[in-house]
């Protein structure tokens, strides 16, 4: 499985950089995960267009959206497993910048995922998302980590 993570901005805090690096290292045995950073733009519309330009045509697109659907870790794992079973082996997750997502990007997404009703920085969202992707693979393989 190939997973693309398209994010606005760079990680600035060492604890976030270290955490993301750890989960990317752990994920290597389950999937290829590529992180593509785009610079912050003047408008969410411009960020949305830049993100969409990086999404391959054969990729399932999920945007992280506070107004999206909240899933448990188990349901998130099921969604990834179902996509894989249905032949969707190229997944893209997009995290917008500090001001959210453009409507164009929301409409283009196959799924809008909310990590919580709470608001996180887009940098913290990156860490939580890669941890949840790792957790999903562990759940789907019935390996210890989740409990």
Class based on secondary structure composition and strand pairing: alpha/beta
Distance between the termini: 24 Å
What order do the helices and strands follow? EHEHEHEHEH
Q: Helix count, per DSSP? A: 5
- Please state the second-level CATH architecture: 3-Layer(aba) Sandwich
Q: How many domains in all?
A: 1
Shape: globular
- How many distinct beta strands? 5
Low-confidence stretches: none
Largest sheet: 5 strands, parallel
Question: Superfamily at the CATH H level?
Answer: SPOUT methyltransferase, trefoil knot domain
Approximate strand percentage: 15-25%
The amount of helix comes to 40-55%
For the biggest β-sheet, the strand order reads: 2-1-4-3-5
CATH topology: Alpha/beta knot
The value of Rg in angstroms is 14 Å
CATH class term: Alpha Beta
Report what the structure shows.
The structure is a single chain. This protein has 147 residues and is of the alpha/beta class. It has five helices and five strands; from the N terminus they run E-H-E-H-E-H-E-H-E-H. The chain has helices at 14-27, 44-53, 73-85, 103-108, 122-140, and strands at 2-8, 32-38, 60-70, 90-95, 111-114. It has a five-stranded parallel β-sheet.
């Amino acid at each position: 499985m190939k997973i693309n993570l398209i994010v606005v901005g760079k990680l600035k805090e060492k604890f976030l950089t270290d955490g993301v690096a750890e989960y990317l290292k752990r994920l290597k045995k389950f999937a290829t995960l590529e992180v593509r950073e785009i610079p912050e733009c003047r408008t969410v519309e411009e960020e949305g267009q830049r993100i969409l330009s990086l999404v391959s045509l054969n990729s399932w697109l999920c945007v992280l959206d506070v107004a999206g659907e909240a899933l448990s870790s188990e349901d998130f794992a099921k969604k990834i497993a179902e996509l894989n079973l249905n032949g969707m082996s190229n997944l893209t997750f997009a995290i917008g910048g500090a001001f959210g997502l453009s409507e164009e990007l929301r409409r283009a997404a196959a799924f809008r995922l909310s990590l919580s009703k709470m608001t996180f920085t887009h940098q913290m969202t990156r860490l939580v998302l890669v941890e949840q992707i790792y957790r999903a693979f562990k759940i789907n393989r019935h390996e210890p980590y989740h409990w």
